[in-house]
């Protein structure tokens, strides 16, 4: 009997392992994709997210199964072009700001995505008939509506809900060009109340839905000495009264909303703060009881989901690039984003076929103030980026290479000094860049590699160099990759080149190869 019991236990274990391998697992995206807003149009899902000071901005992603996503567009190339902070001009920057949480909608054949900016004090509404390849019309409201959600009601009215703690609602004109005068009201006086009185972060991140005639409002709240928590309010009329309750309190997975599948399954899309890799998306199954959405399995976030397995983040979210372009290819694939507004006169993939050329055009005092750092997301549980760069045309004082970008950044690069060059690995602690190790360089081509380990919040990075692309040598030391609020973003791989003494030099990146 004992042997039989062991046999059946093993059968069940192997069956479960086989099942798990063919199903999606949380997190569904192990990379920085926060503040999601998801819609379904027929059997296709679209998602917008926050990338703040990166450009182009407000990425639009597409999926057929809620798990495997591909970036297909951005709402804008630059938010504004005459702002010193957005341009990294005059010693200013916009780290951690730019544009924040977006709201994605589809109504009467038109897609809408809106976002707001504390930098400019404005709200931006973009619209298009072709969300994947179309250009966007842009409307600007001269107020920054914090963490707003735009909602198209069945009666033709269009609302915007926003706020923190005290939530407000206002009607918009039919073309979304402006708000209707004298329609602003307090929607919920204290939306944090279901989580108690001792609140560290008041309820925000509003997303409004209508299901079977009832209104549901999702928010995040953070009780002091507690965790990030989902708050759900329900009402029969949009004007209220609103009844609220805690929707989920597990792992700090919170902020998002509701989505259904063509077959009638419901999920809540949420995200979790996960250290240096950033804020990572989760899906939580939803059941309906007494007209309330019940999130999770026994109020817990499951590891396995009844959805197709992930095929990985490559090539839809991140990807390698050999910088070879065919006739009709875009200069840069959508996986790339610039740190702040780029200067498009100082980079090219056409001047030398098969290479990305980064040219210097001004003197910069530091890496984080340098123009034209080209970035992609790091991702978990582990990720590696490798590059080959030609440095023969650098000028005295130039610095170029591969970075792990956040406030406490690390990098490896070539520094040109008069008639010589050296490989330098730099670590930043408490805003102070420190050269940990440097090695003389006597050749014009050099290979660099950056490794990240985000497993179990290890949050470590390590740099390597190679003279031949085969033998890799560790340089400096392992560094910590802490998530910091001033940058408010997961670490980014970055290609950089900037001048500290004179302009006109350039470097050519042969490739950027990424792997997990």
Number of helices: 2
Instruction: Describe the largest sheet.
Output: 8 strands, antiparallel
Quote the beta fraction: over 45%
The CATH superfamily name of the largest domain is: Glycosyl hydrolase domain, family 43
User: Residue ranges: pLDDT <50 for 5 or more in a row?
Assistant: none
Q: What name is given to the CATH topology of the largest domain?
A: Tachylectin-2, Chain A
What is the class of the largest domain in the CATH system? Mainly Beta
CATH architectural grouping of the largest domain = 5 Propeller
Shape: globular
- Sequence of strands across the biggest β-sheet: 4-24-27-36-29-30-31-32
Average of the residue pLDDT scores: 95
Distance between the termini: 45 Å
As a whole number of angstroms, the C-alpha radius of gyration is: 24 Å
What is the structure about, briefly put?
This protein is mainly beta and 516 residues long. The chain is built from 2 helices and 37 strands.
Task: Give a written overview of the molecule.
The protein has about 525 residues and is mainly beta. It folds into two domains: about 25-310, Tachylectin-2, Chain A; about 335-515, Sandwich (Jelly Rolls). It is about 5% helix and about 50% strand. It is built from two helices and 37 strands. The strands form eight sheets. The protein has an eight-stranded antiparallel beta sheet with strand order 4-24-27-36-29-30-31-32, with no helix packed on it. A seven-stranded antiparallel beta sheet has the order 25-26-37-28-33-34-35, with no helix packed on it. The mean pLDDT is about 95.
């Amino acid at each position: 009997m004992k042997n039989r019991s062991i046999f059946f236990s093993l059968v069940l274990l192997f069956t479960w392992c086989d099942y798990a391998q063919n199903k999606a697992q949380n997190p569904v995206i192990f990379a920085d994709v926060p503040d999601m807003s998801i819609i379904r149009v027929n059997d296709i899902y679209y998602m917008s997210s926050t990338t703040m000071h990166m450009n182009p901005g407000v990425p639009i992603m597409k999926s057929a199964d809620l798990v495997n996503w591909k970036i297909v567009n951005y709402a804008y190339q630059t938010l504004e072009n005459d702002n010193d902070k957005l341009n990294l001009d005059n010693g200013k920057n916009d780290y951690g700001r730019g544009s924040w949480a977006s709201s994605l909608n589809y109504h009467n054949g038109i897609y809408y995505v809106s976002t707001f900016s504390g930098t400019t004090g404005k709200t931006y509404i973009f619209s298009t008939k072709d969300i994947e390849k179309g250009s966007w019309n842009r409307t600007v409201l001269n107020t920054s509506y914090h963490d707003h959600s735009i909602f198209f009601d069945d009666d033709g009215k269009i609302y915007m809900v926003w706020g923190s703690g005290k939530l407000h609602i206002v009607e918009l004109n039919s073309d979304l060009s402006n708000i209707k005068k004298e329609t602003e009201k307090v929607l919920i006086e204290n939306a944090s109340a279901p989580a108690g009185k001792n609140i560290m972060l008041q309820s925000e991140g509003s997303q409004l839905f209508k299901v079977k005639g009832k209104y549901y409002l999702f928010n995040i709240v953070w009780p002091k000495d507690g965790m990030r928590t989902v708050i759900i309010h329900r009402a029969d009329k949009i004007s209220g009264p609103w009844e609220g309750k805690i929707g989920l309190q597990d792992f700090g997975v919170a902020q998002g909303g509701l989505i259904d599948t063509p077959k009638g399954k419901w999920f809540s899309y949420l995200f979790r703060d996960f250290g240096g890799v950033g804020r990572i998306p989760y899906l939580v199954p939803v059941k309906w009881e007494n007209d309330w959405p019940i999130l999770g399995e026994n109020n817990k976030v499951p590891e396995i989901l009844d959805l197709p397995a992930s095929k990985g983040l490559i090539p839809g979210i991140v990807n390698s690039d050999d910088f070879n372009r065919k006739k009709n290819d875009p200069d840069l694939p959508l996986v790339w984003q610039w740190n702040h507004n780029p200067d498009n006169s100082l980079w090219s993939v056409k001047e030398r076929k098969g290479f990305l050329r980064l040219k210097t055009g001004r003197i910069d005092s530091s890496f984080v103030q340098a123009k034209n750092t080209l970035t992609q997301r790091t991702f978990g549980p582990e990720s590696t980026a490798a590059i080959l760069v030609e440095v023969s045309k650098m000028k005295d004082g130039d610095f170029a290479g591969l970075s792990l970008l956040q406030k406490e950044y690390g990098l490896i690069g070539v520094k040109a000094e008069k008639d010589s060059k050296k490989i330098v690995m730099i670590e930043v602690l408490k805003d102070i860049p420190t050269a940990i190790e440097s090695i003389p360089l006597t050749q014009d081509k050099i290979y660099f590699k950056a490794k990240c380990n985000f497993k179990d919040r290890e949050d470590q990075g390590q740099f390597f160099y190679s003279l031949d692309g085969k033998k890799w040598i560790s340089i400096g030391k392992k560094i910590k990759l802490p998530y910091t609020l001033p940058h408010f973003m997961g670490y980014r791989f970055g290609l950089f080149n900037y001048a500290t003494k004179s302009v006109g030099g350039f470097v050519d990146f042969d490739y950027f190869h990424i792997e997990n």
